[in-house]
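Notebook, bench 3.
Goal today: get a predicted structure for Transglutaminase domain-containing protein from Methanobacterium spitsbergense so we can plan the truncation constructs. The sequence was checked against the plasmid map this morning, with no discrepancies at the termini. Length recorded as 443 residues. Pasting the sequence as submitted so the record is complete.
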Amino acid sequence: MKRHLLLAMLLLFSITLLSTDYIYATTPNQQNSDIIANTNIVGEITVDVQQDVKSTANIQQTTVGTLNDVQAVSNTVTSQKATKNAVKTVSSSVTSKDSSKNSVKIQSASEAAGDVNNNKAAGTQTTVKSTTVKYTLSDIKDAASRVKIFIESKKKLPKYVQMGTRQITMPQFLQLLTAGLTQVNKGSTGSIALKSVETSLKPTQNLKSGTIKKSEYLVMAGRITSFINSNGKTPNFASSSLGKIQYESLVYMYSRIMKYQSVNKDLPNYATMQPWQKSADTPVTPVTPIPAELQKYLLPTNHCQSTDSRIIALASSITQGSSSAKDRATKLFNWVRDNIGYSFYYDTNYGAVGTLNSRTANCVDTSHLLVALSRASGIPARYVHGVCKFSSGTWYGHVWAQLYVDGTWYNADAISYRNSLGVINNWNTASYTLKGIYAALPF
């Protein structure tokens, strides 16, 4: 009796060990058997197994032994009794020689967190989905308008621009701008894919004020796009006819161009440029892209040497820290009025550079200098010739300048301390004879 009791206890102990350590899976010859499951339910894992059997079970983690084991689990899932406890496996490592007999061992989460390629179940495939984010040209134009407004009000680049649900960094936005501009020029309406773009480490700028023609800024856009696609970052600068343009200035220039195209349904013939201030991240705000019919008022002439290095340097110095085009125009006018004396003679004698050297001039040469400084600063400027009645009561042939700021022409007669930008007090503006308006003065 004692012997029989001892054997019974040993048998019960063995069964307890087996039910604790292993979940037995059926073999192909045991398709109608039950699965014994004793799992700690912590999460849901879904992985396809052999024969396209699809099932989901809440398990901690499982490791499959041999191919027969997977086949056994697959076949067992078809059993009505086993459906409740059917599991999908996520690894195919054999835990030991002893476990090769159709056993599935429970793994802890830490044990299962190994190499993905080594933990795939036999007969399964791992699919990694990548999502490409794209933006339409309308999206880019809308964002360009907001970036332009931010820069002109805050005097610095924003950290990002919101496009849909994403915050687009300025390096990424430059890529969208240049790629989008190329699309616009080609007449294509395709969307632009967003890329991961880093900021250039050493932005460099050596830029003189002036204009960049449409053909040039389009070529630059293509080069910038190619550089970003190849290097994953913005260039330190873009070379242009005005010098090296750093990334901040490029973002602003192309934002203005996109905004102009959005409003006018055409690309501007020119883009005016001013250097980004070196002392801070504040741009000297260029004027809005100028209409095609006014572009001639930005070009140099024989007596208006607006591309001369001395004129450019002086214009940049005078307008340093200006907050708007009107502010720049006012500073330029005041400087010429306050620093150039008056001498009486007829027609042109010195031109802009000569007047800067002599520091004295008649109305014609004074206007040459003011027009040259304005054009060097990206402000359209022209000459007006008339016969005017001065405060003395005498009528003289006279020349003065006009500066174009924010859609308005302002009179600029710098020969008298009594005058200011837009205001003339030394002769009667209500009664004069207009002789002509010129981009290049003929005398």
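The chain is about 35% helix and 15% strand. The first strand starts at residue 23 and ends at 24.
Flagging this for group meeting.
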